[in-house]
């Protein structure tokens, strides 16, 4: 590609304010990595992935489109609900029921000329490494910890130290009421979402026996209806949290139980809140957090000012607006024992693909980094050999005499190895066949 | 107030209305009372400069459903607007910016009304301010004409309207709130972990007899009963025992409390199937936090000590209730009981009884305060619900902008700025040693230097800052801030405008709903280091 | 951070094309690896055993408990274990497959064991859970029950409760409720 192209790549009048900043160094700009002449062009060529088209996602799409990104992709499996309209400003009453990613993408494309947004109305788990490899940056606005952990593990595992393009910075935002956080993760370099799991307070659970025999709070009555009464009476084949009829059933059950114990405070709204674990959300907070995330994306992509997440620097911004405004921007330390970024797969050279599993198992006993006398081995989808419990050992014993090829193990496959002698660690290996199996 | 829509879908038993469903996620934060306040709010935005931060603020207010807004903006839409403002598109080029923005903002929420100026009815800001119904709050953005600024300040003073001044340029921004006087908040939504007063050291007869009755034969209770004594009852029982052996006094020093905690710990049974008792664990954990006579909270003390000089303040319901609570406190040496009881291991029936004992005492205390209120001049009209809310939250009541009503006693704002500058620069010298981040005041100074000009060079900015901080061009952080502000040439970065607009909207919501605690009074944002600082300027 | 972007695109495309030939290789997840480790450290003794309906799916299995002492001696009880991808941040879901008379297990098979719910921590492992289950049969707890009737019987009259356990375990009826026969063949 010709790099002598003049900046900005297109429409200088329109992007005047942006170019003021991104094409000229400021006092804190690192001159070694900044080149104002090519920034606009580089950003236009970048593919950026947005995960989530909800409260944060709508803001993120708008912000990225107005930050100079032109090729934006967005994944969200959800459809629009009426309760989204108080903050998800790309949606209208008439959009209720349509896919969020689809509607959001079309809206921003219409509003901001020259931006292409590709929607995917599905789950992030529907895509594999090849899909994620095409992007240079990932920005997440999710409400589920599970999805965050999934994409985090994906991006960390994609890192190939030999290929600089396999590092995909992940920027993640989250909100609750007037509070939120924005963080930047450079996979395997900074602390990752798994390292930071302790930043999410787990939802306090009430003992089942309290629900069953000594309820005291309206929430106890609702949880009882949800966990115990529903299973016992099964009024509908499957509980759908979004079906008002189902919520009403739970509400009435909870209300009756509350009356029985003279507990006050069970309402429809509380029932819905407890059953769906509703987190309060407003436009203003989404605006703050999404913009904090996109500001980092802009700095990473343009190098026109230092971003969060540089080695040894801050990578996490906490924001709280309940009592005045308070931000705490700090460095969250990487955890050496992190099950995701502290345990990357090492290469394991297989001298001969005709090896039996037994030969592989025995080979671990003499490997220098860990002499595993009783290794148990699995791949992602197959239990190859487990030393215990007895029933699994028996079931997997026949595999020992099969060759790796027969067991479907091929070049590049990842396996997990555990050994009771190493109580605190487990190992991941990526198989590398010496002579490619024919 | 949210209305009940009864049409269309068959109503489910006490199910939510269409509007309650739409606003569900925010009603969980500020309830119907906060929503009602928002819906009757009328907001004016005086928009200038690059013009994005004010619109992002309004977006965040239109979505949750303010009653109405007006935009005053006398510019036309240019190409540069389209690269930074989401609520404009190609079709708007060359048209009135306020008209275009209003149209696209109104799409966000059909329940909100909006108007744009200048138009034929009001051709100037002055005309708009004299002809419009009173505004609940006004936001204006920098750079602004001096003449507009004076008109707004005068309006704010006259109508007691909160003013929000906002400036966003490049990676930096700040906003400043000017409130018409001291601003009290009763419904502060304290953190859930904040302890409620259980008054264990000053129990009233009903509570005493309830606890005594449950523990009179504590040694002979079966495992089930013993393991379900509420921790409040356990603590009251052993406190009573302590007093008997300590000449009638309660454990007060740290040493005594740890000793007391050990006594409670040792009273737990371990010969049961579980090998311990959860309720005793709860009691042990609660000793240091609840076995105290709570001191007068600092926020409330500030309210009590606040010197009121404006007659309007003196007559307001809030201050009449404050006086009544102060009398109550003087008489009883404690605040009215909040009345809530945290969840604790107990049988359902016992817990509900305990709850009722606390609730009825809280009602009694609130009743006593109400009586005092009613006996005051102007106290008759005060809503008992307002008194009850105050009593419930008394420990967490907060006063913002507590300058004292006497304006002559107020320090001039430029003198105040000089004081804060000295202090912040001094703090910075020790910042590294104290592991504290550096002051963001230089950003404020640099932005403020461009309050009335479209753009300025580094030297212009430093010359302006030097009027407040002599030798500014020798102070590295100020020079750096000036460079960064100069780089923007008055232009906004959308992200920084959106972030700032989010913060301003949060603050406006807090002030309109009188819930949660607003900043006092300036918030500075640094988009390079991604952090804020709040200062009183 | 590095100059990740600029000119590396073409090179990357070439590498991708090469890598794609090998087909998609799924990675071992953190949850799977943790379960694998927990399983290889289980100490089942002679009163418990596992059964894996699909040995390749180690996230769901059945645990059999055969108490050799206490009131539930000579019974054979089974529990389904279902482990989510959020393990160990979420506890395993455990349910008793038989309808039994027990103060801490309800008629639908729900189990009230603190570490299966409110007291679960990621540092706990599957062994802690099975030890807890075993303990329930040795020391049924009447204090905060799931099956109120059984708990009241245990509180009021331990001998009567023992008789009821015997009756219920042989498929008999206690207070109008008929239970599953869980006696193990001798």
UniProtKB/TrEMBL annotation, chain A:
Source species of the chain: Podospora didyma
- Which controlled-vocabulary keywords does the entry list? ATP-binding, Ligase, Nucleotide-binding, Ubl conjugation pathway
Q: What is its EC number?
A: 6.2.1.64
According to its UniProt entry, the protein's GO biological process terms are: protein neddylation
What role does this protein play? Catalytic subunit of the dimeric E1 enzyme, which activates NEDD8.
Q: What is the catalytic activity of this protein?
A: ATP + [NEDD8 protein] + [E1 NEDD8-activating enzyme]-L-cysteine = AMP + diphosphate + [E1 NEDD8-activating enzyme]-S-[NEDD8 protein]-yl-L-cysteine
Highest taxon, organism lineage:
Eukaryota
Q: Name one GO cellular component term.
A: cytoplasm
Top class in the EC scheme? ligase
Q: Which family does it belong to?
A: Belongs to the ubiquitin-activating E1 family. UBA3 subfamily.
Q: What is the lineage of its organism?
A: Eukaryota, Fungi, Dikarya, Ascomycota, Pezizomycotina
An example molecular function term from Gene Ontology annotations: ATP binding
Annotated protein name in UniProt: NEDD8-activating enzyme E1 catalytic subunit
Q: What CDD domains does the record point to?
A: Uba3_RUB
The residues covered by the E2 binding domain are 348-434
Q: In which pathway does it act?
A: Protein modification; protein neddylation
Q: Which InterPro entries match?
A: E2-binding (IPR014929), ThiF/MoeB/HesA (IPR045886), ThiF_NAD_FAD-bd (IPR000594), Ub_act_enz_dom_a_sf (IPR023318), Uba3_N (IPR030468), Ubiquitin-activating_enz (IPR035985)
UniProtKB/TrEMBL annotation, chain B:
Q: Residue spans with biased composition (Polar residues)?
A: 1-10
GO process annotations (BP): protein neddylation
Q: Which GO terms describe its cellular component?
A: cytoplasm
Pathway entry: Protein modification; protein neddylation
Gene Ontology molecular function terms on file: NEDD8 activating enzyme activity
Q: Which Pfam families does this UniProt record tie to the protein? A: ThiF
Protein keywords:
Ubl conjugation pathway
Region (Disordered) residue ranges read: 1-20
Q: Which domain of life is it from?
A: Eukaryota
Q: Which residues form a coiled coil?
A: none
List, for all copies, the residue spans of the domain called THIF-type NAD/FAD binding fold: 23-534
Leader peptide range in chain numbering: none
User: What PANTHER family does its record include?
Assistant: NEDD8-ACTIVATING ENZYME E1 REGULATORY SUBUNIT, UBIQUITIN-ACTIVATING ENZYME E1
Function noted in UniProt? Regulatory subunit of the dimeric UBA3-ULA1 E1 enzyme.
Which family is this sequence assigned to? Belongs to the ubiquitin-activating E1 family. ULA1 subfamily.
Protein name, entry field: NEDD8-activating enzyme E1 regulatory subunit
Originating organism: Podospora didyma
TrEMBL record, chain C:
Q: What's the EC number here? A: 2.3.2.34
Q: Which UniProt keyword terms apply here?
A: ATP-binding, Nucleotide-binding, Transferase, Ubl conjugation pathway
By its UniProt entry, which Pfam families does this protein fall under? UQ_con
Which segments carry the region annotation Disordered? 1-25
Protein origin, superkingdom: Eukaryota
Catalyses which reaction(s): [E1 NEDD8-activating enzyme]-S-[NEDD8 protein]-yl-L-cysteine + [E2 NEDD8-conjugating enzyme]-L-cysteine = [E1 NEDD8-activating enzyme]-L-cysteine + [E2 NEDD8-conjugating enzyme]-S-[NEDD8-protein]-yl-L-cysteine
Q: TM spans, by residue? A: none
GO molecular function per UniProt: ATP binding; NEDD8 conjugating enzyme activity
Cell membrane in keyword set: no
> What positions does UniProt annotate as the active site of this protein?
112 (glycyl thioester intermediate)
UniProt record similarity statement: Belongs to the ubiquitin-conjugating enzyme family.
Q: What is this protein called?
A: NEDD8-conjugating enzyme UBC12
Q: Which organism is it from?
A: Podospora didyma
């Amino acid at each position: 590609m010709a790099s002598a192209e003049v900046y900005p790549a297109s429409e200088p009048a329109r992007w005047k304010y942006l170019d003021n900043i991104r094409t000229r160094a400021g006092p804190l700009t690192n001159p070694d990595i900044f080149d104002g002449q090519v920034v606009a062009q580089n950003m236009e060529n970048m593919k950026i992935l947005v995960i989530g088209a909800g409260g944060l996602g709508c803001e993120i799409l708008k912000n990225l489109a107005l930050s100079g990104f032109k090729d934006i992709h967005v994944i969200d499996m959800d459809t629009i609900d009426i309760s989204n309209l108080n903050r998800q400003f790309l949606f209208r009453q008439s959009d209720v029921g349509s896919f969020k990613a689809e509607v959001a993408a079309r809206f921003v494309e219409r509003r901001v000329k020259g931006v292409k947004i590709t929607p995917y109305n599905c789950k992030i788990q529907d895509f594999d490494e090849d899909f994620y490899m095409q992007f240079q940056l990932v920005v997440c606005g999710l409400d589920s910890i599970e999805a965050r952990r999934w994409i985090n593990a994906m991006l960390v595992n994609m890192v190939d130290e030999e290929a600089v393009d396999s590092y995909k910075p992940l920027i993640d935002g989250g909100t609750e009421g007037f509070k939120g956080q924005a963080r930047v993760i450079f996979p395997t370099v900074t602390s990752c979402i798994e390292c930071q799991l302790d930043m999410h307070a787990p939802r306090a659970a009430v003992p089942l026996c309290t629900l069953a025999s000594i309820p005291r709070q309206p929430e106890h009555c609702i949880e009882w209806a949800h966990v115990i009464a529903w299973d016992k009476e099964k009024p509908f084949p499957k509980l759908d949290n979004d079906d008002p009829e189902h919520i009403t059933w739970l509400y009435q059950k909870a209300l009756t139980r509350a009356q029985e114990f003279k507990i006050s405070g069970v309402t429809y709204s509380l029932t819905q809140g407890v059953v769906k674990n509703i987190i309060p959300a407003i436009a203003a907070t989404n605006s703050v957090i999404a913009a904090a995330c996109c500001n980092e994306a802009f700095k990473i992509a343009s190098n026109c000012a230092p971003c969060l997440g540089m080695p040894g620097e801050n990578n996490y911004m906490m924001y709280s607006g309940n009592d005045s405004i308070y931000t705490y921007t700090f460095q969250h330390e990487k955890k050496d024992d992190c099950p995701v970024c502290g345990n990357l797969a090492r290469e394991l050279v297989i001298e001969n693909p005709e090896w039996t599993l037994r030969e592989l198992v025995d080979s671990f006993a003499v490997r220098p980094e860990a002499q595993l006398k009783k290794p148990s081995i699995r791949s992602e989808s197959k239990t190859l050999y487990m030393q215990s419990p007895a029933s699994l050992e028996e079931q997997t014993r026949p595999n020992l005499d099969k060759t790796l090829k027969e067991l479907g193990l091929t070049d590049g496959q990842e396996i997990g190895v555990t050994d009771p002698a190493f109580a605190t660690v487990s190992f991941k290996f990526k198989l590398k066949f010496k002579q490619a199996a024919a | 107030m949210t209305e009940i829509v009864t049409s269309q879908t068959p109503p489910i038993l006490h199910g939510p209305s269409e509007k309650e469903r739409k606003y569900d996620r925010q009603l969980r934060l500020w309830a119907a009372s906060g929503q009602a306040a928002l819906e009757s709010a009328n907001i004016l935005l005086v928009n200038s400069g690059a013009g994005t931060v004010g619109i992002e603020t309004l977006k965040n207010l239109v979505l949750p459903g303010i009653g109405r807004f007006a935009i005053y903006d006398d510019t036309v839409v240019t190409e540069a607007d389209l690269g930074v403002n989401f609520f404009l598109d190609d079709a708007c080029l060359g048209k009135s910016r306020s008209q275009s923005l209003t149209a696209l903002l109104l799409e966000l929420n059909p329940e909100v009304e909006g108007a744009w100026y200048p138009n034929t009815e009001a051709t100037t800001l002055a005309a708009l301010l004299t002809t419009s119904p009173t505004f609940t709050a006004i936001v204006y953005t920098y750079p602004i004409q001096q003449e507009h600024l004076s008109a707004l300040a005068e309006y704010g003073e006259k109508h007691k309207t909160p003013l929000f001044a906002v400036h966003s340029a490049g990676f930096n921004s700040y906003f400043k709130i000017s409130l018409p006087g001291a601003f009290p908040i009763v419904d502060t939504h304290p953190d859930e972990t904040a302890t409620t007063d259980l008054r264990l050291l000053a129990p009233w007869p009903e509570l005493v007899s309830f606890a005594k009755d449950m523990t009179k034969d504590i040694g002979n209770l079966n495992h089930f009963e013993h393991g379900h004594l509420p921790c409040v009852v356990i603590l009251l029982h052993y406190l009573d025992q302590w007093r008997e052996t300590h000449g009638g006094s309660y454990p007060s020093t740290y040493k005594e409390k740890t000793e007391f905690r050990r006594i409670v710990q040792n009273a737990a049974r371990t010969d049961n199937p579980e090998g311990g008792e959860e309720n005793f664990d709860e009691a042990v954990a609660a000793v240091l936090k609840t076995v105290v006579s709570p001191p007068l909270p600092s926020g409330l003390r500030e309210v009590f000590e606040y010197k009121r000089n404006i007659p309007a303040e003196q007559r307001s319901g809030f201050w009449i209730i404050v006086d009544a609570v102060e009398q109550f406190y003087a008489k009883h040496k404690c605040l009215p009981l909040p009345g809530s009881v945290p969840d604790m291991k107990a049988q359902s029936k016992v817990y509900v009884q305990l709850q009722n004992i606390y609730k009825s005492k809280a009602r009694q205390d609130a009743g006593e305060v109400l009586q005092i209120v009613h006996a005051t001049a102007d106290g008759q009209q005060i809503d008992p619900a307002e008194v009850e809310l105050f009593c419930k939250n008394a420990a967490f009541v907060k006063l913002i902008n507590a300058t004292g009503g006497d304006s002559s006693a107020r320090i001039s704002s430029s003198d105040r700025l000089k004081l804060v500058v000295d202090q912040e620069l001094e703090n910075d010298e020790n910042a590294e040693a104290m592991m504290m981040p550096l002051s963001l005041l230089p950003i404020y100074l640099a932005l403020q230097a461009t309050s009335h000009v479209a753009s300025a060079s580094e030297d212009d900015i430093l010359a302006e800052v030097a009027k407040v901080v002599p030798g500014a061009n020798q102070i590295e952080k100020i020079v750096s801030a000036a460079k960064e502000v100069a780089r923007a040439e008055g232009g906004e970065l959308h992200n920084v405008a959106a972030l700032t607009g989010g913060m301003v909207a949060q603050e406006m919501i807090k002030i309109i709903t009188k819930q949660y605690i607003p900043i006092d009074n300036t918030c500075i944002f640094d988009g390079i280091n991604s952090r804020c600082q709040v200062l009183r300027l | 951070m590095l100059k990740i972007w600029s000119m590396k695109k073409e090179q990357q495309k070439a590498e991708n094309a090469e890598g794609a030939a090998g087909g998609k290789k799924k990675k071992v997840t953190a949850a799977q690896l943790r379960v694998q480790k927990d399983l290889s450290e289980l100490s089942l003794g002679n009163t418990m055993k596992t059964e894996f309906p699909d040995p390749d799916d180690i996230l769901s299995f059945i645990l059999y408990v055969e108490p050799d002492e206490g009131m539930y001696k000579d019974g054979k009880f089974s529990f389904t274990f279902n482990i989510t991808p959020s393990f160990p941040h979420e506890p395993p879901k455990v349910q008793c497959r038989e309808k039994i008379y027990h103060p801490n297990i309800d008629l639908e098979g729900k189990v009230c064991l603190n570490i299966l719910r409110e007291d679960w921590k990621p540092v706990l492992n599957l062994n802690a859970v099975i030890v807890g289950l075993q303990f329930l049969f040795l020391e049924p707890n009447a204090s905060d029950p799931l099956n109120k009737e059984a708990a009241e019987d245990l509180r009021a009259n331990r001998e009567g409760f023992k008789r009821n356990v015997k009756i219920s375990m042989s498929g008999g009826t206690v207070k109008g409720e008929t239970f599953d026969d869980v006696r193990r063949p001798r």
